[in-house]
Design a protein that fits this description.
By secondary structure, this protein is an alpha+beta fold. It has 9 helices and 11 strands. The protein has helices at about 10, 40, 85-90, 125-130, 135-160, 190, 195-205, 210-215, 220-240, and strands spanning about 5, 15, 30, 45-50, 55-60, 90-95, 100-105, 115, 120, 165-175, 175-185. Strands 1-7-6 form a 3-stranded antiparallel β-sheet, with helices on one face. Strands 8-2-9 form a 3-stranded antiparallel β-sheet, with no helix packed on it. β4 (about 45-50) and β5 form a beta hairpin. The longest helix has 27 residues, at about 135-160. The chain is globular and about 60 Å long.
């Protein structure tokens, strides 16, 4: 992946072909999410909490091996329902320049940039700029960025109660069983034992929706394991035919 700054001077003549492949996310077994995504994520993927920078970051679990996204198929298609926001801005990203200022960059090796095919990267006026590929990517990235800090604060509010606890996830990997560590989840018994005033406080903070969305998402763990077993069986069948 080669990231280059997005400017009219350097890329004003370029066009963007439709994104038909999520191969770039094929090794992403976890992806960060924000609070507004919890409801959509919960009906598609398990939500766990990862300890980072002294706090917890919510993440959608997409694979079981640490480097395999079970929702990206061999042809690059996405077989999950909801596509997490972090993948919807591809091939655009934000990184900091030498002065520390955020700049929009694009993966120059994404095979989506073209001189003749697809949508012009930029619009011709303010309105069309907002609707252009660059404008849409900036909107997604900006929204995700604006929600990141409030989301971490909301999860920190939940964590203060002590209900987010370590959890080990046992999965089948070929002939052996593997335990995925480093994950945290809400302990339902601890949640139910919270005093009424603490629950009221969480409700006022807007924390109950993420809590219950997370608990609902735990029902997706068996679905994820099923996908993992299917991938293993498919790989074994292909090896047997080779």
């Amino acid at each position: 992946m080669t990231l280059i700054p997005v400017t009219r001077e350097t890329l004003g003549h370029k066009r963007l072909k439709p994104q038909t492949s999520f191969a770039f996310a094929a090794k992403a077994s976890l992806c960060g999410i924000v609070a507004s995504e919890f409801a959509a994520i919960a009906t598609n993927y398990p939500i766990f909490f990862i300890q980072q920078e002294g706090g917890f970051t919510p993440a959608a679990m997409l694979g079981l091996s640490g480097d395999d996204n079970l929702f990206v198929e061999a042809d690059g298609g996405w077989s999950g329902g909801y596509v997490p926001g972090v993948f919807r801005s591809y091939p655009f990203f934000v990184q900091k320049d030498e002065a520390g200022a955020p700049i929009l960059v694009v993966d120059d090796q994404c095979d989506l940039l073209s001189d003749s095919e697809g949508e012009p990267l930029f619009g011709t006026d303010e309105a069309s700029d907002l609707a252009s590929p660059v404008g849409r990517a900036l909107h997604i990235i900006t929204q995700m960025d604006l929600e990141t800090v409030p989301t971490r604060a909301l999860i920190a509010k939940i964590a203060e109660t002590g209900i987010i606890q370590p959890i080990n996830l046992a999965v089948d990997r070929s002939e052996a069983e593997k335990v995925v560590t480093g994950l945290h989840a809400i302990n339902e018994a601890s949640l139910n034992a919270l005093p009424d005033e603490t629950l009221v406080d969480l409700r006022r903070a807007g924390a109950l929706l993420p809590i219950y969305a997370h608990l609902v998402s735990m029902g997706q763990v068996q679905q994820l394991k099923g996908r993992g077993r299917f991938r293993l069986a498919l790989a074994a069948a292909r090896n047997a035919q080779a």
